[in-house]
């Protein structure tokens, strides 16, 4: 259980610490496992029979599916019991997201309803607003949508053009503007709409039948075809002042805080999707015969299966490590200000939420791409499930803030915390500079932990150099920040995988963790060397380049044999070799 573990108490703190304990799926309690099984049965009994119809545009099937999910309690996991919810730990919501991953577009429908759809109401709604809408959202009687993006403002949410003007009698706000890419719009009853007021960006609860609100047609999308995506047009829409959600001018707090939740759920869902794609690929590789034997016996196919599994293991470990830290932070809430305390606890780990969003979505893209390749020409056919998995995966690098935006956020948030004195990042960077001038050449007792420590030091060195050279202008050096982000992502994932593998007693898990770490070291060295000439010159640059090579040093390994052993376990398991609890 989480309570039994001493996890990192600060977002980003793992960069400066030597963690010994992490939360993993092997720590799930009975309630979490029961809900996990409930979702699996829901997918088989409720979703599968209508999956093809949904994919071919019969989107109305989303409505009874949501209502059935409501009956099972799956819509109110993060809602208080007084509104029909279960009020369970955040880990449970990620377990559901992972288990629903194979439902493609419906997982988007569900995700909108339970995250950006109703959580703003949970955390910022008045009692009157909650009494009016929340229980009906939890049951599925009402369906929610979230209207932030506009034709000219995607990642730049503060650039919204939609306006809200107070009526002369002070009873209404009159909204005008256009919202784009609105999931659930085709069947939603309640829209959370963001608009500019004189005070700033503000959120409003707008009911579907409000005069002046109309919808565009369904978007023709590459993937997630089972979900509804439309434009929402607002023409003199009169919204009662009592439907302002949160404070006037504070809509950005709602928008950005809810994104943190969406990011860690997306990371979990992506890992679930990757597991499904690996299972399809392993099954096909054992059935497909070429040159007289199953293609699963070929080295290059085994290499793909092993890489897929290792990246999934690292991603899964990072996801649930993050959820453990969040749930531990929320375990001793100030009940008098519960909503604010929950948001503060989640925001503390915004760095990790962005990390697992990028990591999970890119693991999934890698796995489905290799899955299509394993299937060969059949992978390009809509008759095979891997084709839909490939199309559905692509949106995840755009959802919840593009991966480029999140790559800027990861080091950006770390540096801001350091500037506020919340993380002693600069002290550690200064200490590291001295250490690099007087390196130790002693052989470490634990090579893998020493290699992880080297990765952390390299991330610190890059961040420290960048901050020293550019100061407040660092935001303009996006390429440098992206390199720092990639090293940080690999540090967090590799450490999560290694610590978990050691708890599991080694075996294939130690081999997957070792494979990921080996390649993370190579990636980090190449990335650092690519931007060091931007951060230093002459002897200083050469010194740092030498340090980068030293910090990522490792002995050559027989990766062919390592991958073959991992692939064998994948084939024996018929997919991802999920550790037993």
From TrEMBL:
Domain Acyl-CoA dehydrogenase-like C-terminal: 455-550
Lineage: superkingdom: Bacteria
SUPFAM superfamilies: Acyl-CoA dehydrogenase C-terminal domain-like (SSF47203), Acyl-CoA dehydrogenase NM domain-like (SSF56645)
InterPro entries documented for this protein: Acyl-CoA-dh-like_C, Acyl-CoA_DH_CS, Acyl-CoA_Oxase/DH_mid-dom, Acyl-CoA_Oxase/DH_mid-dom_sf, AcylCo_DH-like_C, AcylCo_DH/oxidase_C, AcylCoA_DH/ox_N, AcylCoA_DH/ox_N_sf
Keywords, in A-Z order: FAD, Flavoprotein, Oxidoreductase
Domain annotation Acyl-CoA dehydrogenase/oxidase C-terminal: ranges: 249-410
Molecular function via GO: acyl-CoA dehydrogenase activity; flavin adenine dinucleotide binding
Reactions it catalyzes: a 2,3-saturated acyl-CoA + A = a 2,3-dehydroacyl-CoA + AH2
UniProt cofactor(s): FAD
Every Acyl-CoA oxidase/dehydrogenase middle domain range: 145-237
Domain Acyl-CoA dehydrogenase/oxidase N-terminal: 30-141
Membership in a protein family: Belongs to the acyl-CoA dehydrogenase family.
The protein's name in its UniProt record: Acyl-CoA dehydrogenase domain protein
